[in-house]
Amino acid sequence: MEATYIETQQISFQDFKKNVLEDYKLGRISREMSYLGRREVLTGKAKFGIFGDGKELPQLAMAKVFKNGDFRSGYYRDQTFSLVIGAVTVESFFAQLYADTSIEREPASAGRQMNGHYATRSLNEDGTWKNLMQQKNISSDISPTAGQMPRLLGLAQASKIYKSVKFEGSEKFSNNGNEIAFGTIGDASTAEGHFWETLNAACALQVPMIVSIWDDGYGISVPTQNQRAKADISEMLSGFQRKEGENQGCEIIQVKAWDYPALLEAYAKAEHFARTESVPVVVHVVEVTQPQGHSTSGSHERYKNEERLKWEAEFDGLVQFKEWILNYSIEIEGNEQQLATAEDLEAIEYEAKKFVKDGQKRAWENYQVAIQDLKNAVFPLVENLKNQNTEIEAEIEKFKKIVSVSKKDIFHLVRKTLLLTRGNNTVERTNLQAKYNEIYAVEKDNYSSHLYSQSQWKATNVKEVAPIYSESSQTVDGRVVVRNNFDKIFSKYPETLVFGEDAGNIGDVNQGLEGLQEKYGDVRIADTGIREATILGQGIGMAMRGLRPIAEIQYLDYILYCLQGMSDDLATVQYRTKGGQKAPVIIRTRGHRLEGVWHSGSPMAGIINLSKGILVLVPRNLTKAAGFYNTMLQSDEPAVIVECLNGYRLKEKQPDNLGEFTVPVGKIEVTKEGNDVTLVTYGSTWRLVMEAAEELEKIGISAEVIDVQSLIPFDLEHEIAESVKKTNRLVVIDEDVEGGTSAFILQQILEKQKAFKYLDSEPLTISAENHRPPYASDGDYFSKPSVDDMVEKVYAMFHESNPAKFPKI
């Protein structure tokens, strides 16, 4: 067991003095970063600022117990903490404020996130994992209030998993599970459901987690008493306090933000509970001040009265810290010892201010050099064209008057010049066009890369391995295929685990995990409470720490509880760090063609539109689903795999190469060839479309049926367009609402694949009604596309073009 802060604090007075003064200096540096950052925004050099002033002391204390291998999942106020652990420098802080797109200068997000959003880089440039045990780790911050909490649960639970799970390379991620996950949250955000769901789950699971609540009494302008049932969150959480002898609950520690020695003691205790006993701890930091208000968007003088502002000035943490240092004295061997004089601290303050100003100046100069280089590369080329159109000279003069030139100003000038010189095939224009293509490719990478993996393990690189069948291949229920494939997976990949409601003891409600908990244990095949948002969060956090989690969401409708985390967190992990972090979690769910309002939704359009960055795979049967699991476990990308709920009892031939065969992502399958019309669908609806195609065949219409299989990515080889080129007609059939996934599919085929030019008839979509289906089979029949609907609507398309051959029904 790694030693805790309490166990290592036998130091001399001189070392103590050195530590205290170093803390004061770091606190002052952080404060000056906040002050100067605000000024940079208000003078127009940056767009927006949100800072951590007022929280310096508690973050200094938190940083002392934060060790290599530990993780933080926080929000946008933790600049002091990030500064202390080396995750941010003065230069990188201001580089982020200016939105500098250089990874070297702004390694947290390469300018993609507004300031205050911190991250360490978990990955090497090629996408391989760094040794996370050799660095202090910050999972990339997000702004949505309390959105960082579900992920925190998974980061903490990973430590508990690593106490029993080992695999080749696992030493990069854990030292026998001794790591702590630290979370931070503003007091007003504790009103969010994600906070309560995460804390509840942590208390049930007993994971090593420390949550710091920065309590400044307000949520922007709304006071605490209007945020929660009790103004004092510690009092409100008192029922969570663990009782002696019970293996549930958490420890709750309340401490003042301006009391330096009390803060050191509070975090030392918190670390001891979390690291040695694997107990979650809440550190409620009260009487926090916010000297500059919430952000640069407004002033806190608008909602804080004079008395409150006076109190904040007096109980500013750095003011109180300074007084404590000046008043501290101790007698050692008959001599009174002090920490510092007023002159000593003034010298530190001056040095801190200069240090920050120098760093800011370097950051601004580096940022400007990059823009100046871009300007110097294109401006002469634009000037070479000013004689070709009189309007170009006017554009150049406008450009010269811009006080602070940005990239968009440069690109606008170039693009306007190219527009004005269209049709002029001169050498000068060709040179400008070539330079534009060159610089646009660079900025495309700066602003749009890494939405999906760019490593050798990206899912599209996984080779297809066909299922192998023999005379001895058994015909079994679909659920047996997926279960037996999972058995192979858990045997092959010791880092893989699955968890969800009813996933463990009973082997999921459809028996797709039957008997696997007994075989692999309840750490790897685990039940959870009814709490979908944190089931997803468990997956994200575990995946960030090298595990391969499969987070099971019992039904597709329930994924709506996860959508915020999927959209704001998981889908953006690689993008918002520009390839610095990844979380290859697989979300397992099931749905389609269900019965009843609350189990029949098909929110696929919401998923694909809100979760760009996550692969969305929609297998038509359980063999295909098993193949997708095999594919994704060779990949480093997150995915949603939607199993067909009505397929578990349908018979399928079980492949002989379970755990080995793969289904390629972004690849369609033609399941029936035809010449007259292309029918495109996916998931459970495919079986009905195949039935409808057979009916159409009987009445003289030869339909080609295509199973999309993968919505994201979608038909990468544009095979659907080739089918439309042959049939000249297109029908998209989907059980989502009208304008839902069918609209996405249609856009991909007509616009991206340019299939519109092959059409002889207007393309048709056949979708569900815009309400949830009522209960029972009749509800499904009248609410979602039936075989009769498909046959009649496709037939009507042919009636319109040839009424003699296809008379009206």
Automatic annotation (TrEMBL):
InterPro entries, per database record: DH_E1, THDP-binding, Transketo_C/PFOR_II, Transketolase-like_Pyr-bd, Transketolase_C
Start and end residues of each Transketolase-like pyrimidine-binding domain: 476-650
Keyword Thylakoid annotated: no
Keyword Oxidoreductase: yes
Alphabetically ordered keywords of this record: Oxidoreductase, Thiamine pyrophosphate
Cofactor: thiamine diphosphate
PANTHER family for this protein: PYRUVATE DEHYDROGENASE E1 COMPONENT BETA SUBUNIT (PTHR43257), PYRUVATE DEHYDROGENASE E1 COMPONENT SUBUNIT BETA (PTHR43257:SF2)
Function comment: E1 component of the 2-oxoglutarate dehydrogenase (OGDH) complex which catalyzes the decarboxylation of 2-oxoglutarate, the first step in the conversion of 2-oxoglutarate to succinyl-CoA and CO(2).
Record-given protein name: Thiamine pyrophosphate-dependent enzyme
Organism per entry: Kaistella montana
